[in-house]
Amino acid sequence: MQTNDVPTASEMFGAQSHIYKHTFHFANSMVLRCAIQLSIPDIIHNHKQPMTLFELVSELKLPPAKSNGIHRLMRLFVHSGFFATKSLDEISETQEGYVLTASSKMLLKSEIPNLLPFVSAMVDPVMVNPWNSLGDWFLGNKTNPFETAQGASMWEY
Predict the structure, then answer these.
(1) pTM to 2 decimals?
(2) Does 54 reside within a domain?
(3) Could you give the angle at the alpha carbon of 48 between the alpha carbons of 118 and 105, nearest 5°?
(4) DSSP label at residue 51
(5) Residue 97 domain-assigned?
């Protein structure tokens, strides 16, 4: 920072970026929850070959109007390493299909070991809501954030 404590444009941009990153970081867990709810890892696994967006939307039995949402969701999953894309046409490489990665294989219902029960529990609203209650917990008299959010201890809930 400059000597007169006025942030530079670069510092302000960096600070804004840092705040946005933390503000939207929850989205990673929520889209992971969505993939589990829709059984996307299992659907792609059962397809036995790279699965196109059209095939995925069709298998999910979603209205075509929601295919753009699934496309965006899958782009996020590919970016975060939960899925990968593989070219279906070696010549033009215009058609891609989704394939599993080591991470998405850990979310298959049929595979042992898997982390599906753990991830499902950790992204469930019962476990997420206590995080939303941290401020209330600090200001209140409950013994922990879970009790603040749910009205009972984890073991009584």
Answers:
(1) 0.84
(2) yes
(3) 20
(4) B
(5) yes
Rg (CA), the chain: 21
With contact defined as beta carbons under 8 Å apart, do 107 and 117 qualify? no
Two tokens, residue 29: 């867990």
Q: Is 35 exposed, middle or buried (0-12, 13-18, 19+ CB in 10 A)?
A: buried
Neighbouring CB atoms inside 10 A of 78's CB total 16
For tokens 């059209």, the residue is: 54
Domain extent, residue 50, equals: 21-108
What pLDDT digit, counting tens, does each position of 33-64 carry?
A: 999 999 999 999 999 999 999 999 999 999 88
Q: Domain with 102 in it: what CATH number?
A: 1.10.10.10
Asked whether 97 and 50 are in contact (CB, 8 A), the reply is: yes
